[in-house]
Design a protein that fits this description.
Helix content is about 30%, strand content about 35%. With about 210 residues, it is an alpha/beta fold. Strands 1, 4, 5, 6, 7, 8, 9 and 10 form an eight-stranded mixed beta sheet that branches. The two termini are about 35 Å apart. The chain binds 5-O-phosphono-alpha-D-ribofuranose (HSX) (2 copies).
């Protein structure tokens, strides 16, 4: 299933800054972090909670809830690593796994080079991090790795800033139970499978 963040003027303003080719690295990082924070909070909204009662300083009880279940982040290197801090800002001691997948820029085919994941990942909810979902090939390969480690599809939340309709469709048909949470669905892909209008190469703009 696909969840697009509410298209508020605030979010559109943030996206406008990071799409602008004249935005320099410092601002790109700062403003993309604000969007990442929104994505992480929305992702956390999908986790289960259970009833939990507390006593307030006024001596009254408050019947609330608390988070239930363990989580971990998994970033698709390199660009996905830019989303790790946003996750840590919300979940202090969160474990983070890494999957290195590189897309061949000629063929747009993803290639898996490396992965290192928490050993109890099958018992966790996974927030899969990659800012761009173009053809969906890279993230899909990462999902395969997670599934081989025993992570159920319905426990994966794929967070990204910009998706193409093709990338979204890829996930909807291939992994109907996986949740994709995105800030914006763009027009489409160009002949090099770059998202348009997009924002260019996220990894290059963030890391240099
Ligand atoms: C949990 O995972 C909490 O949100 C923590 O932020 C994080 C720590 O888990 P662990 O690595 O100590 O098991 O869901
Ligand atoms: C970019 O290419 C992104 O960060 C992703 O890792 C990948 C997206 O392309 P695709 O595999 O969805 O076509 O570097």
């Amino acid at each position: 299933t696909v969840h697009v963040l509410p298209q508020t003027p605030q979010l559109i303003a943030l996206l406008t800054i990071i799409r602008d080719k004249n935005t320099q690295r410092g601002d790109f990082i700062f403003y993309s972090n604000r969007i990442i924070r929104l994505l992480v909070e929305e992702g956390l909204n999908h986790l289960p909670v259970k009833e939990h009662e507390v006593t307030t300083p006024l001596g009254r009880t408050y019947a609330g809830v608390r988070f239930e279940g363990k989580i971990c982040g998994v970033s698709i290197m390199r660009a996905g690593e830019s989303m790790e801090q946003g996750l840590r800002d919300c979940c202090r001691s969160v474990r983070i796994g890494k999957i290195l997948i590189q897309r061949d820029e000629e063929t747009a085919q993803p290639k898996l080079f490396y992965h290192k994941l928490p050993n109890d990942i099958a018992d966790r909810w996974v927030l899969l991090l990659d800012p761009m979902n173009a053809t969906g090939g890279s993230a899909s390969m990462a999902v395969q790795v997670l599934k081989e480690k025993g992570v159920a599809e319905e426990r994966i939340l794929f967070l990204n800033l910009i998706a193409s309709p093709e990338g979204i469709e890829h996930f909807a048909s291939k992994y109907p139970k996986l949740r994709v949470i995105t800030a914006f669905i763009d027009e489409g892909l160009d002949d090099k499978n770059y998202i348009v209008p997009g924002l260019g190469d996220f990894g290059d703009r963030h890391f240099g």
